Amino acid sequence: MADREYTNRKNNRLQRLIRKAGFDQSQANVNDINYQAGRKLNKKLIDRLSTCEYIQRAHNIIIAGATGTGKSDIACSQGMKGCKHYYATNDPSAGTTGRTGRCLG
């Protein structure tokens, strides 16, 4: 009984964090990122960011690039990963740092 209650509370907390973040792409997942050569993405860096160590160190990440390169997809997938580690995040498209940047924190 106690295990079920604990699991329900954790699931409710996760769903609340995701809902509060207001992601445009709430199904974004780090494992679904396309690493084809033309995108010039550093898989090791994205995997390292997925550990959410930068949050523990109180660092931010800025994702910059041309229109249509997938900044929002990467930001949402990192934000979802943060939620899964039970960190509060925000919608990356709401906090742009410029015309080509996205902010997640």
Question: What can you tell me about this protein's structure?
Answer:
With 105 residues, the chain is mainly α. The protein is 43% helix and 8% strand. It has four helices and two strands. It has a two-stranded antiparallel ribbon with strand order 1-2. Helix 1 runs antiparallel to helix 4.
Write the layout of secondary structure elements.
Layout lengths: L1 H20 L21 H7 L3 H4 L4 E4 L6 H14 L16 E4 L1
Antiparallel strand pairs: 1-2
Key words describing this protein structure:
105 residues; disordered C terminus; 4 helices; mainly alpha; 2 strands
Summarize the structure.
The protein has 105 residues and is mainly alpha-helical. The protein has helices spanning 2-21, 43-49, 53-56, 71-84, and strands at 61-64, 101-104.
Radius of gyration: 15 Å
- Category by helix and strand content: mainly alpha
Taken as a percent bin, the fraction of beta residues is 5-15%
Q: What distance separates the N and C termini?
A: 36 Å
Mean pLDDT: 84
Biggest β-sheet: count, sense, barrel? 2 strands, antiparallel
Question: Helicity, in percent?
Answer: 40-55%
Strand tally? 2
Biggest β-sheet: strands ordered side by side in the sheet: 1-2
Number of helices: 4
Tell the overall outline.
elongated
Order of helical and strand elements: HHHEHE
- Contiguous runs where pLDDT drops below 50 for at least 5 residues: 96-103
